[in-house]
């Protein structure tokens, strides 16, 4: 039987997870060709922070090395010259920068996202980088050897992880953030203050609600300072922009695929062209785009289900939990942690123990949670949220966690045990 040809554009975690699932479900279905812009096998991008900190090596975060592709009969084209520049949908082929072509029966686009670069005056100076890939990490590590002052723009997950890593490497680090709250999309003010205090105890400085105006160059065209709206300057040898990412869908758009904020896909991760699928941070599903690994991996499973010919799975967007990859700091956030006038807020705060818990309820159902310091019950709160369970029977002990709640139900309200356990 002649195998169909599957071409995958993107050698990152989303595309390769789909390939892994496909090989498991239907190993003989396709001849697979993969194109990746980076000169590596498939690596765990979310573990770049531990590499920057010196806790991991590049080899240790590789998921699939080049031998894995050979062992599975996959043709890998990896490197900048192998980046796909054209999708010819009429002829069903892709063309890379160096002219390499590959024909497909099915095409999977997994081009991920690209870092958002704020067009500040001076953003093109030497010493101004993002925090997205192995090249960026290697650049930061080299600067840490010869330079002193690092400034990280952005108090989100990536910004804090970059700041921690650079501090671990011996640099003086300042985080510049335009809001009053760190991780303002994931934490409320109480949890954010605990987090900031922990980072400050590690020697990292913060400039909150900062009005960053421009990057100032030295005589060689390298960044030397950050200038703010009030005219003050902060010394800077390395400026890391960590202000978010945006779906990388330019290639798909140029091929005539329907794109809005990302490549628009249906519940089977199929584009409007039935021969083309898309997964990962490049897609838009029911109005949502994605930046966490959990939904991306779920998309990959659903997509592989359809590519393998089984065709029964459907992707459903669920709230994604947030965790910070910084050793010694435990935080967890999921869902709507703010709430509204129809919500009830349950809170526990012990400044001495540096523990904070916030659970948001609407109609006796968990819709969001924030945990700092003690995160052992994070997955339980997420399960309650996803299952939309009525928690009225354990409302009075909800903040004490799963084991306490189950014991409470067993002792006080046995009839509710099965419902909430």
From TrEMBL:
Keywords: FAD, Flavoprotein. InterPro entries: FAD-bd_OxRdtase, FAD/NAD-bd_sf, FAD/NAD-binding_dom, FAD/NAD-linked_Rdtase_dimer_sf, Rubredoxin_C. Signal peptide: none annotated. One of its GO terms (molecular function) is oxidoreductase activity. The keyword tRNA-binding does not apply. Residues 5-288 form the FAD/NAD(P)-binding domain. Residues 321-388 form the NADH-rubredoxin oxidoreductase C-terminal domain. Its cofactor is FAD. Belongs to the FAD-dependent oxidoreductase family. This is NAD(P)/FAD-dependent oxidoreductase. It comes from Neiella marina. The lineage of its organism: Bacteria, Pseudomonadati, Pseudomonadota, Gammaproteobacteria, Alteromonadales.
